[in-house]
């Protein structure tokens, strides 16, 4: 069973959108999948450095 997902709306700078599109295509992922992967990796790295926002 796939994990539940939430729909969100965010505003990104155009240059960021273009880079994410390029990277996601290169990685054969959808735009959303790529953003999710990048955010998950960032959270993991941040928590490994000892930062816990909650």
Brief descriptors of the model:
54 residues; 2 helices; 0% strand
Summarize the structure.
By secondary structure, this protein is an all-alpha fold. 57% of the residues lie in helices and 0% in strands. The longest helix has 18 residues, at 31-48.
Overall body shape: globular
Class from secondary-structure proportions: mainly alpha
Low-confidence stretches: none
- Main sheet? none
Return Rg in Å: 13 Å
Percentage of residues in DSSP E strands: under 5%
What is the average per-residue confidence, as pLDDT, rounded to a whole number? 93
Number of strands: 0
Percent of residues in helices: 55-70%
Distance from first to last alpha carbon? 28 Å
Give the topology string: H per helix, E per strand: HH
Number of helices: 2
How would you portray this structure in words?
The chain is mainly α. 57% of the residues lie in helices and 0% in strands. It has 2 helices and no strands. It has helices spanning 14-26, 31-48. Helix 1 (14-26) crosses helix 2 (31-48). The longest helix has 18 residues, at 31-48. It is globular.
Task: Explain the layout of strands and helices.
Blueprint: H1 14-26, H2 31-48
Helix pairs in contact: 1-2
């Amino acid at each position: 069973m796939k994990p539940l997902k939430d729909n969100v709306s965010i505003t990104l700078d155009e240059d960021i959108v273009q880079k994410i599109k390029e990277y996601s295509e290169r990685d054969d992922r959808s735009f959303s999948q790529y953003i999710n992967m990048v955010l998950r990796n960032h959270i993991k790295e941040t928590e490994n450095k000892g930062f816990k926002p909650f």
